[in-house]
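Researcher: Structure for this, please.
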Amino acid sequence: MRVLLLFRGAPGCGKSTYIKEYGLADYTLSADTIRMQCSSPVLDVDGDWAISQKNDKVVWDMLFQMLELRMQAGCFTVIDATNSKTTEMNRYKALAKQYRYRTYLIDMTDLPIVECKRRNAQRAPIKRVPEEVIDKMYARFATKKIPGGIQVVTPDTALETMRYRQADLSQYKTIHIIGDIHGCNTALQQLMQKFGGIRDDSFYIFCGDYIDRGLENAQVVQFLLSIMDKPNVTLLEGNHERWLYDWSHDRKAKSPEFEIHTRLELENAGIDKKQVSRLYQRLNQCSWFTYHGKDVFVCHGGVSNFDTKDPLGLISIPTFQLIHGVGRYPDLPQVMAAWNHTGIYQVAGHRNIQEYDIFTENTSYITLEGRVEFGGHLRAVTLDHTGFIQHKIKNDVYRAPDETAASIKPNTTVQLLVSDLRREPEVRESKFGNLSAFNFTSAAFRNSHWNDLTTVARGLFINTEKYEIVARGYEKFFRVDELARVYNYPHSNLDYLKDKLKFPINVYLKENGYLGLLCYDPEIDDLRFCTKGSISGNYAERFYQLFRQTCFSDVSQHWNDLKDFLKMNNCTMLFEVIDQQFDPHIIEYDTPHLILLDIVYNEIGFRKMPYNAWIGDDLIGVSQRFNLNLKKYVNQFMDWQQFYDFYSKASATDYQYEGSYVEGFVFEDAAGFMTKLKTDYYSFWKYMRGIAPAVRHYGSIQHTSALTTAQANLFYGFLRDKYTKDEAFRDRTNSGYNIISLRQEFFASQGAAS
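Model: Predicted structure, token format:
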């Protein structure tokens, strides 16, 4: 939690001993420790070893940098320093104010100077300081005051004083705990009406996440401003409230949702930023209380455990975890299972993609996240002398998920689309006569700059003379949880998908090759074989060759039929081109082949042929008609729980599908929305492929901290050994970094199969 503990006292007064005896070392920043890390001990004039003071500016800069990092996360922090100067303490005080820390100081200056000198003389030479240093410090202790706002405590009472004290709320008739509101004021006011408003005989705890996603953010904030000073109201901090702080201090929030919607609502309502700043200052990290014999702990994110008897038990939990929860977003089941405090109830919001009810199987864990912002329920519980009572208020005022997605402007023509694409700086145009290929740039991909133009510009071929779409690839679609940070496209995170997906969902195997586009070009009155960005080159040529070799046993019989089909339907066939010898990727295949992925219509709006249809053309029928291998259908999920169970299973380390490693899966819902999952195996070896060039050229990589598993380190060691000692290996791999071959040799060296 946001607690800072300082000491004041000369060397030898007992600071380090106190830290050791009370188990504070894991939370401590020590200037002497940093000094020792910056420089080895040095000899003094008497021939003794001493800690070097030469780098003190760097030492203190480093200490404060680390302190600020800890404060950003809300970590309990102890500073092992003398603090003889008021200026030093003022620096801590300023940071504490900025990050909303409670600051305590253990004053050890009452130790007689004689005793301090005696202890100093008994210390190891390296820790000993000249007596005149102690004299100067004691002189400053006598004249320099401790700044206001820092609570002075004694060594004996410090931990008990800092303890987050449990409040006794038994004097109230009822305790109301309200879950995530997310800008849904209509549901909130219905709930408050049910409670009879803010009554003096009741206590109210709001769990955080008051804004964003909903349509009534300004009204919610106005309500909070009206109740924030009431003594029987506790407002907890959720992960979305940070944007209120940024807005009230005229900063741009790092939240697309806030910047696009919430900011405008607040500004149009004329809400006072100074009042919002004061509101943020009133937010609490948690609530820990007893009520008629029941112990209740409330926070926004949900924690797995803390020692209720240890003074450090609660304050040792970083505020970041109280707000964002312990573990990853999907880890709620493990967190709930770990919370096994008999007779202690935990109430939390924030996450609930598993759709737990308010009262879970773990009767001591209560979850109040109810998807209110997506048309779900505002959840709450009331605690009275009989126990907990649940409340669910259905919200009918919400933004449909599709309304948040960017899309091409309605009534756009191909000519206007071309004009817009050419003005977009992160779309590149490659010209082939009158035919132009539009694709997003590497910078757009690298920086996740996705909008309606960068996502559509992916294998899009347009005749810019006649303004006709000749070939249409996929629009960019994203991995599950890939887009939490992407401006204007927060649409593949699990939290969003929970309400975005329209069931049933069809699941297809994700193959591992490159994309080939087959279309009819009226300009040449013939078929074109393209890649995402070109109608020529080795990859387009290999696609053509492989098509001739594997798909048409009798070219003359099928060619014109295929040309007529593409022409009449004005569509593009999308293929996965798989050829391990020509273009090795991550996943191993036995033979080169093509897989028909989809048939996309050459229209501005993205539309494709169904996989299986009762009436008309479908992928199954077309693949049979033209002797094409079709993408593998895996399963169909009828509800969220089926989808999530599969997602969790396929996300596990070393997951295999039907006994083989695969790239992943593509999910397509009933409305045509697509997302995908990449397996751990694929992601791991793709990263390993990326480090191979650096090892070959430089002998090592700069950031070995990214090698987080035993296998990663073993493979890295294998590469280093091979590239430095085996000339034949270097020659063999000179033309490229075929991770499949590298992996095979690695496993052979380990005596294991790949």
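Researcher: Any notable elements?
Model: The chain is about 35% helix and 20% strand. Confidence is low (pLDDT under 50) at residues 484-488.
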